Amino acid sequence: MSEPALVENFHRETVRERTFAQPIVLWDETLRDGEQTPGVHFSPEEKLRIAELLSDVGIPLLNAGIPVVSEEEARAVRLLAEAGLRAKVLAAARTVPGDVEAVIRSGATHIAIFVAASNVHLRYKLKMSQEEVLNASLAAVGQAKAAGLHVAFVTEDTVRAPLDFVERLYRAVQEAGADRLVISDTVGIMTPLTFRWFLREFRRRVRPKDWSVHCHNDFGLAVANTLTALEEGVNSPHVCVNGLGERAGNTSLEELVMALESLYGVPTGIQTNRLFELSRLVEEVSGVPLAANKALVGYNSFSHEAGIHTHGILANTLTYEPLQPESLGRSRQMILGKHTGKAAVVEKLKERHATATDPLLAELLKRIKERSEQRGKVEVDKFLLTYRSLYEHPGISDAEFWQMVRGLGIATEGT
Fold first, then answer.
1. Does residue 268 belong to any structural domain of this protein?
2. Which domain covers residue 347, as residue numbers?
3. Residue 312 domain-assigned?
4. Of the candidates 53, 67, 313, 319, which lies 20 to 30 Å from 122 by C-alpha distance?
5. Beta partners for 304?
6. Residue 125 gets which letter from DSSP?
7. Total domain count for the chain?
8. Residues 183 and 161 reside in one and the same domain
9. What pTM value is reported for the model?
Protein backbone atom coordinates (compact mmCIF):
# COMPACT_ATOMS: atom_id res chain seq x y z
CA MET A 1 0.00 0.00 0.00
CA SER A 2 1.34 3.47 -0.91
CA GLU A 3 2.14 6.02 1.80
CA PRO A 4 -0.82 8.33 0.92
CA ALA A 5 -3.14 5.32 1.00
CA LEU A 6 -1.77 4.26 4.40
CA VAL A 7 -2.36 7.76 5.79
CA GLU A 8 -5.90 7.85 4.39
CA ASN A 9 -6.62 4.40 5.80
CA PHE A 10 -5.25 5.41 9.24
CA HIS A 11 -7.43 8.54 9.23
CA ARG A 12 -10.51 6.52 8.26
CA GLU A 13 -9.89 3.92 10.98
CA THR A 14 -9.27 6.49 13.75
CA VAL A 15 -12.42 8.42 12.80
CA ARG A 16 -14.39 5.17 12.89
CA GLU A 17 -13.25 4.54 16.48
CA ARG A 18 -14.71 7.87 17.65
CA THR A 19 -18.25 8.02 18.93
CA PHE A 20 -19.73 11.08 17.26
CA ALA A 21 -23.35 11.68 18.17
CA GLN A 22 -25.89 12.11 15.41
CA PRO A 23 -27.16 14.66 15.02
CA ILE A 24 -24.74 17.19 16.47
CA VAL A 25 -26.83 20.10 17.80
CA LEU A 26 -24.77 23.27 17.49
CA TRP A 27 -25.68 25.62 20.34
CA ASP A 28 -24.78 29.17 19.39
CA GLU A 29 -23.81 31.61 22.16
CA THR A 30 -22.97 34.66 20.02
CA LEU A 31 -25.92 36.70 21.31
CA ARG A 32 -25.25 35.89 24.97
CA ASP A 33 -21.60 35.06 25.71
CA GLY A 34 -20.50 36.78 22.51
CA GLU A 35 -22.22 39.95 23.65
CA GLN A 36 -20.30 39.69 26.92
CA THR A 37 -17.13 40.49 24.95
CA PRO A 38 -15.83 43.67 26.62
CA GLY A 39 -17.28 46.73 24.91
CA VAL A 40 -19.84 44.81 22.82
CA HIS A 41 -23.55 45.59 22.93
CA PHE A 42 -26.30 44.33 20.62
CA SER A 43 -29.65 46.09 20.36
CA PRO A 44 -32.72 43.81 20.13
CA GLU A 45 -32.94 44.56 16.41
CA GLU A 46 -29.26 43.72 15.91
CA LYS A 47 -29.77 40.45 17.78
CA LEU A 48 -32.65 39.63 15.47
CA ARG A 49 -30.54 40.41 12.41
CA ILE A 50 -27.79 38.03 13.55
CA ALA A 51 -30.29 35.40 14.71
CA GLU A 52 -32.04 35.34 11.35
CA LEU A 53 -28.78 34.61 9.55
CA LEU A 54 -27.72 32.04 12.17
CA SER A 55 -31.05 30.29 11.66
CA ASP A 56 -30.85 30.54 7.86
CA VAL A 57 -27.38 28.93 7.70
CA GLY A 58 -28.61 25.99 9.78
CA ILE A 59 -27.89 26.68 13.46
CA PRO A 60 -30.54 24.65 15.33
CA LEU A 61 -30.32 26.34 18.76
CA LEU A 62 -29.33 29.85 19.82
CA ASN A 63 -29.07 31.58 23.16
CA ALA A 64 -30.86 34.94 22.91
CA GLY A 65 -29.64 36.26 26.27
CA ILE A 66 -30.63 36.63 29.93
CA PRO A 67 -34.03 38.37 30.06
CA VAL A 68 -33.80 39.35 33.73
CA VAL A 69 -30.77 41.56 32.97
CA SER A 70 -32.84 44.49 31.64
CA GLU A 71 -36.04 45.43 29.86
CA GLU A 72 -34.12 45.75 26.59
CA GLU A 73 -32.68 42.25 27.02
CA ALA A 74 -36.13 40.86 27.79
CA ARG A 75 -37.48 42.61 24.67
CA ALA A 76 -34.67 41.09 22.60
CA VAL A 77 -35.50 37.56 23.76
CA ARG A 78 -39.22 38.11 23.07
CA LEU A 79 -38.40 39.53 19.64
CA LEU A 80 -36.44 36.40 18.71
CA ALA A 81 -38.96 34.03 20.27
CA GLU A 82 -41.75 35.57 18.18
CA ALA A 83 -39.76 35.85 14.92
CA GLY A 84 -40.69 32.43 13.55
CA LEU A 85 -37.07 31.31 13.25
CA ARG A 86 -36.24 27.73 12.28
CA ALA A 87 -33.70 27.73 15.13
CA LYS A 88 -35.02 27.10 18.61
CA VAL A 89 -34.65 30.10 20.92
CA LEU A 90 -33.09 29.61 24.34
CA ALA A 91 -32.73 32.09 27.21
CA ALA A 92 -30.56 31.82 30.30
CA ALA A 93 -31.26 32.13 34.02
CA ARG A 94 -29.51 31.81 37.33
CA THR A 95 -30.92 29.40 39.91
CA VAL A 96 -33.17 32.23 41.11
CA PRO A 97 -36.98 32.06 40.82
CA GLY A 98 -37.24 35.55 39.31
CA ASP A 99 -34.70 34.67 36.62
CA VAL A 100 -36.57 31.52 35.64
CA GLU A 101 -39.86 33.39 35.61
CA ALA A 102 -38.37 36.00 33.26
CA VAL A 103 -37.46 33.22 30.80
CA ILE A 104 -40.94 31.73 31.08
CA ARG A 105 -42.48 35.14 30.26
CA SER A 106 -40.08 35.69 27.34
CA GLY A 107 -41.63 33.02 25.14
CA ALA A 108 -38.38 31.08 24.71
CA THR A 109 -38.92 27.31 24.45
CA HIS A 110 -35.53 26.41 25.98
CA ILE A 111 -33.84 27.54 29.16
CA ALA A 112 -30.24 27.24 30.34
CA ILE A 113 -30.14 27.31 34.14
CA PHE A 114 -26.65 28.09 35.39
CA VAL A 115 -24.87 28.09 38.73
CA ALA A 116 -21.23 27.96 39.81
CA ALA A 117 -19.78 24.66 41.03
CA SER A 118 -16.10 25.09 41.97
CA ASN A 119 -14.99 25.81 45.52
CA VAL A 120 -13.47 29.15 44.56
CA HIS A 121 -16.78 30.32 43.05
CA LEU A 122 -18.90 29.01 45.91
CA ARG A 123 -16.70 30.53 48.60
CA TYR A 124 -15.83 33.90 47.10
CA LYS A 125 -18.64 34.69 44.62
CA LEU A 126 -21.83 32.94 45.63
CA LYS A 127 -21.03 32.51 49.34
CA MET A 128 -23.13 29.35 49.26
CA SER A 129 -22.56 25.81 50.43
CA GLN A 130 -22.74 22.82 48.10
CA GLU A 131 -26.04 21.87 49.70
CA GLU A 132 -27.49 25.31 49.07
CA VAL A 133 -26.40 25.16 45.42
CA LEU A 134 -27.96 21.72 45.05
CA ASN A 135 -31.29 22.82 46.55
CA ALA A 136 -31.46 26.00 44.48
CA SER A 137 -30.66 24.02 41.33
CA LEU A 138 -33.38 21.45 41.96
CA ALA A 139 -35.93 24.19 42.64
CA ALA A 140 -35.02 26.07 39.43
CA VAL A 141 -35.17 22.92 37.29
CA GLY A 142 -38.54 22.02 38.81
CA GLN A 143 -39.92 25.51 38.16
CA ALA A 144 -38.79 25.45 34.51
CA LYS A 145 -40.05 21.91 33.85
CA ALA A 146 -43.43 22.77 35.36
CA ALA A 147 -43.68 25.57 32.78
CA GLY A 148 -43.00 23.09 29.95
CA LEU A 149 -39.52 24.33 29.02
CA HIS A 150 -36.67 22.24 27.65
CA VAL A 151 -34.09 22.54 30.44
CA ALA A 152 -30.33 22.61 30.06
CA PHE A 153 -28.46 22.66 33.36
CA VAL A 154 -25.09 24.41 33.33
CA THR A 155 -22.41 24.75 35.96
CA GLU A 156 -19.75 27.39 35.71
CA ASP A 157 -16.21 26.12 36.29
CA THR A 158 -17.28 22.48 36.19
CA VAL A 159 -13.78 21.17 35.52
CA ARG A 160 -12.32 22.79 38.68
CA ALA A 161 -15.13 21.60 40.94
CA PRO A 162 -14.80 18.53 43.21
CA LEU A 163 -15.85 15.55 41.11
CA ASP A 164 -17.93 14.03 43.89
CA PHE A 165 -19.99 17.24 44.05
CA VAL A 166 -20.23 17.41 40.25
CA GLU A 167 -21.55 13.84 40.21
CA ARG A 168 -24.07 14.45 43.00
CA LEU A 169 -25.34 17.72 41.53
CA TYR A 170 -25.71 16.55 37.93
CA ARG A 171 -27.28 13.22 38.85
CA ALA A 172 -29.82 15.04 41.01
CA VAL A 173 -30.86 17.61 38.39
CA GLN A 174 -31.06 14.94 35.69
CA GLU A 175 -33.37 12.88 37.92
CA ALA A 176 -35.40 16.06 38.52
CA GLY A 177 -36.00 16.41 34.80
CA ALA A 178 -33.10 18.39 33.31
CA ASP A 179 -33.00 17.48 29.62
CA ARG A 180 -29.39 18.43 28.85
CA LEU A 181 -26.29 18.65 31.04
CA VAL A 182 -23.64 21.24 30.23
CA ILE A 183 -19.99 21.03 31.32
CA SER A 184 -18.03 24.29 31.35
CA ASP A 185 -14.31 24.96 31.09
CA THR A 186 -14.90 28.50 32.28
CA VAL A 187 -11.28 29.67 32.36
CA GLY A 188 -10.03 27.57 29.45
CA ILE A 189 -7.56 25.42 31.40
CA MET A 190 -8.33 22.04 29.85
CA THR A 191 -6.06 20.35 27.35
CA PRO A 192 -7.49 17.71 24.98
CA LEU A 193 -6.01 14.83 27.03
CA THR A 194 -7.16 16.11 30.43
CA PHE A 195 -10.57 16.98 29.03
CA ARG A 196 -10.93 13.51 27.55
CA TRP A 197 -10.23 12.02 30.97
CA PHE A 198 -12.73 14.38 32.64
CA LEU A 199 -15.48 13.65 30.12
CA ARG A 200 -15.05 9.90 30.41
CA GLU A 201 -15.16 10.14 34.21
CA PHE A 202 -18.25 12.38 34.03
CA ARG A 203 -19.98 9.95 31.68
CA ARG A 204 -19.09 6.98 33.91
CA ARG A 205 -20.38 8.68 37.06
CA VAL A 206 -23.39 10.66 35.78
CA ARG A 207 -24.53 8.72 32.69
CA PRO A 208 -25.87 11.79 30.87
CA LYS A 209 -28.67 11.24 28.37
CA ASP A 210 -27.87 14.47 26.51
CA TRP A 211 -24.76 16.51 27.16
CA SER A 212 -22.99 19.64 26.08
CA VAL A 213 -19.73 21.53 26.58
CA HIS A 214 -18.93 25.24 26.89
CA CYS A 215 -15.23 25.91 26.31
CA HIS A 216 -13.31 29.16 26.71
CA ASN A 217 -10.22 30.04 24.73
CA ASP A 218 -7.81 31.47 27.33
CA PHE A 219 -4.99 29.20 26.14
CA GLY A 220 -6.18 28.95 22.53
CA LEU A 221 -7.57 25.44 23.07
CA ALA A 222 -11.33 25.95 22.89
CA VAL A 223 -11.82 24.36 19.46
CA ALA A 224 -9.43 21.48 20.20
CA ASN A 225 -11.16 20.75 23.50
CA THR A 226 -14.61 20.93 21.91
CA LEU A 227 -13.55 18.51 19.18
CA THR A 228 -12.27 16.19 21.90
CA ALA A 229 -15.67 16.39 23.58
CA LEU A 230 -17.42 15.53 20.33
CA GLU A 231 -15.09 12.56 19.86
CA GLU A 232 -16.32 11.38 23.27
CA GLY A 233 -19.96 11.53 22.20
CA VAL A 234 -20.99 14.99 23.43
CA ASN A 235 -23.85 16.04 21.16
CA SER A 236 -24.34 19.79 21.71
CA PRO A 237 -21.20 21.97 21.59
CA HIS A 238 -21.39 25.69 22.39
CA VAL A 239 -19.98 28.01 19.71
CA CYS A 240 -19.63 31.74 19.00
CA VAL A 241 -19.24 33.38 15.61
CA ASN A 242 -15.66 34.65 15.20
CA GLY A 243 -14.81 33.12 18.57
CA LEU A 244 -16.31 36.10 20.40
CA GLY A 245 -16.79 35.99 24.16
CA GLU A 246 -15.39 37.02 27.49
CA ARG A 247 -11.62 37.54 27.71
CA ALA A 248 -10.07 35.47 24.87
CA GLY A 249 -13.47 34.27 23.69
CA ASN A 250 -15.18 30.94 23.11
CA THR A 251 -15.13 28.07 20.65
CA SER A 252 -15.23 29.53 17.14
CA LEU A 253 -18.32 28.44 15.21
CA GLU A 254 -16.65 28.55 11.80
CA GLU A 255 -13.53 26.70 12.95
CA LEU A 256 -15.50 23.91 14.64
CA VAL A 257 -17.90 23.48 11.71
CA MET A 258 -15.16 23.31 9.09
CA ALA A 259 -13.03 20.96 11.21
CA LEU A 260 -15.99 18.59 11.54
CA GLU A 261 -16.91 18.81 7.87
CA SER A 262 -13.42 18.78 6.33
CA LEU A 263 -11.17 16.94 8.79
CA TYR A 264 -13.60 14.43 10.30
CA GLY A 265 -16.14 14.06 7.51
CA VAL A 266 -18.95 14.65 10.00
CA PRO A 267 -21.99 16.51 8.60
CA THR A 268 -23.16 19.54 10.59
CA GLY A 269 -26.16 20.66 8.56
CA ILE A 270 -24.60 24.11 8.19
CA GLN A 271 -24.46 26.00 4.88
CA THR A 272 -20.71 26.43 5.05
CA ASN A 273 -20.63 28.66 1.96
CA ARG A 274 -22.36 31.34 4.06
CA LEU A 275 -19.96 31.25 7.00
CA PHE A 276 -17.94 34.22 5.75
CA GLU A 277 -21.15 36.22 5.27
CA LEU A 278 -22.08 35.40 8.88
CA SER A 279 -18.60 36.29 10.12
CA ARG A 280 -18.65 39.66 8.38
CA LEU A 281 -22.09 40.49 9.78
CA VAL A 282 -21.00 39.76 13.35
CA GLU A 283 -17.78 41.70 12.82
CA GLU A 284 -19.84 44.68 11.63
CA VAL A 285 -22.47 44.58 14.37
CA SER A 286 -20.10 43.77 17.24
CA GLY A 287 -17.47 46.28 16.15
CA VAL A 288 -14.76 43.71 16.90
CA PRO A 289 -12.51 43.43 13.81
CA LEU A 290 -11.25 40.04 12.72
CA ALA A 291 -7.56 39.36 13.13
CA ALA A 292 -5.98 39.26 9.66
CA ASN A 293 -4.66 35.77 10.37
CA LYS A 294 -7.87 34.43 11.99
CA ALA A 295 -8.38 30.86 10.84
CA LEU A 296 -10.71 30.44 7.85
CA VAL A 297 -12.43 33.85 7.99
CA GLY A 298 -9.44 36.14 8.61
CA TYR A 299 -8.56 38.37 5.68
CA ASN A 300 -5.27 36.55 5.04
CA SER A 301 -6.65 33.02 5.32
CA PHE A 302 -6.70 32.53 1.56
CA SER A 303 -4.16 35.19 0.55
CA HIS A 304 -0.75 34.37 -0.91
CA GLU A 305 2.30 36.55 -1.55
CA ALA A 306 5.45 34.44 -1.20
CA GLY A 307 6.79 33.30 -4.57
CA ILE A 308 7.09 29.65 -3.62
CA HIS A 309 3.52 29.60 -2.33
CA THR A 310 1.93 31.40 -5.27
CA HIS A 311 3.78 29.15 -7.72
CA GLY A 312 2.44 26.11 -5.90
CA ILE A 313 -1.10 27.48 -5.69
CA LEU A 314 -1.15 28.27 -9.39
CA ALA A 315 -0.07 24.72 -10.13
CA ASN A 316 -2.55 23.11 -7.71
CA THR A 317 -4.41 24.84 -4.87
CA LEU A 318 -3.97 21.80 -2.61
CA THR A 319 -0.26 22.62 -2.31
CA TYR A 320 -0.90 25.39 0.23
CA GLU A 321 -4.63 25.35 0.95
CA PRO A 322 -6.37 22.61 2.97
CA LEU A 323 -9.76 23.42 1.46
CA GLN A 324 -11.27 25.56 -1.27
CA PRO A 325 -12.12 29.15 -0.22
CA GLU A 326 -15.47 28.85 -2.03
CA SER A 327 -16.57 26.29 0.56
CA LEU A 328 -16.81 29.19 3.04
CA GLY A 329 -18.13 31.72 0.58
CA ARG A 330 -14.67 33.23 0.08
CA SER A 331 -12.26 33.82 -2.78
CA ARG A 332 -8.51 33.49 -3.15
CA GLN A 333 -6.21 36.53 -3.31
CA MET A 334 -2.77 36.80 -4.84
CA ILE A 335 -0.98 39.68 -3.11
CA LEU A 336 1.73 41.58 -4.99
CA GLY A 337 4.55 42.70 -2.71
CA LYS A 338 8.11 42.15 -1.50
CA HIS A 339 7.86 38.34 -1.63
CA THR A 340 6.07 38.08 -4.99
CA GLY A 341 7.51 35.71 -7.58
CA LYS A 342 7.42 35.62 -11.38
CA ALA A 343 4.50 33.18 -11.59
CA ALA A 344 2.15 35.57 -9.76
CA VAL A 345 3.07 38.45 -12.07
CA VAL A 346 2.44 36.33 -15.18
CA GLU A 347 -0.94 35.29 -13.75
CA LYS A 348 -1.83 38.90 -12.93
CA LEU A 349 -1.03 40.00 -16.49
CA LYS A 350 -3.46 37.40 -17.81
CA GLU A 351 -6.33 39.36 -16.26
CA ARG A 352 -5.99 41.80 -19.15
CA HIS A 353 -4.65 39.33 -21.71
CA ALA A 354 -1.15 40.86 -21.43
CA THR A 355 2.17 39.09 -21.89
CA ALA A 356 5.74 40.25 -21.35
CA THR A 357 9.21 39.09 -22.28
CA ASP A 358 11.47 37.74 -19.56
CA PRO A 359 13.50 40.98 -19.32
CA LEU A 360 10.31 43.03 -18.94
CA LEU A 361 8.96 40.57 -16.38
CA ALA A 362 12.19 40.88 -14.41
CA GLU A 363 11.97 44.67 -14.45
CA LEU A 364 8.30 44.65 -13.47
CA LEU A 365 9.03 42.29 -10.60
CA LYS A 366 11.92 44.51 -9.46
CA ARG A 367 9.65 47.57 -9.42
CA ILE A 368 6.94 45.73 -7.46
CA LYS A 369 9.45 44.73 -4.79
CA GLU A 370 10.98 48.22 -4.58
CA ARG A 371 7.56 49.89 -4.32
CA SER A 372 6.55 47.47 -1.59
CA GLU A 373 9.72 48.06 0.45
CA GLN A 374 9.50 51.84 0.07
CA ARG A 375 5.88 52.06 1.12
CA GLY A 376 5.54 53.80 4.48
CA LYS A 377 3.51 52.58 7.43
CA VAL A 378 1.73 55.82 8.32
CA GLU A 379 -1.76 54.44 7.64
CA VAL A 380 -1.00 51.21 9.47
CA ASP A 381 0.30 53.15 12.47
CA LYS A 382 -2.85 55.31 12.51
CA PHE A 383 -5.04 52.22 12.40
CA LEU A 384 -3.16 50.55 15.26
CA LEU A 385 -3.39 53.66 17.43
CA THR A 386 -7.13 53.89 16.81
CA TYR A 387 -7.61 50.17 17.41
CA ARG A 388 -5.68 50.26 20.67
CA SER A 389 -7.53 53.31 21.93
CA LEU A 390 -10.85 51.57 21.27
CA TYR A 391 -10.04 48.15 22.68
CA GLU A 392 -7.64 48.76 25.54
CA HIS A 393 -10.53 50.49 27.36
CA PRO A 394 -13.66 49.53 25.40
CA GLY A 395 -16.34 50.37 27.97
CA ILE A 396 -17.35 53.64 29.62
CA SER A 397 -14.33 55.94 29.87
CA ASP A 398 -13.08 57.30 33.20
CA ALA A 399 -14.17 60.79 32.14
CA GLU A 400 -17.71 59.57 31.41
CA PHE A 401 -17.86 57.64 34.68
CA TRP A 402 -16.83 60.57 36.87
CA GLN A 403 -19.19 62.85 34.97
CA MET A 404 -22.04 60.47 35.89
CA VAL A 405 -20.87 60.44 39.51
CA ARG A 406 -20.86 64.25 39.66
CA GLY A 407 -24.25 64.39 37.95
CA LEU A 408 -25.72 62.25 40.75
CA GLY A 409 -24.16 64.45 43.41
CA ILE A 410 -21.99 61.66 44.85
CA ALA A 411 -19.24 63.20 46.98
CA THR A 412 -15.68 62.21 46.07
CA GLU A 413 -12.31 63.10 47.59
CA GLY A 414 -11.34 66.63 46.65
CA THR A 415 -14.91 67.72 45.76
1. yes
2. 303-374
3. yes
4. 67
5. 334
6. I
7. 3
8. yes
9. 0.90
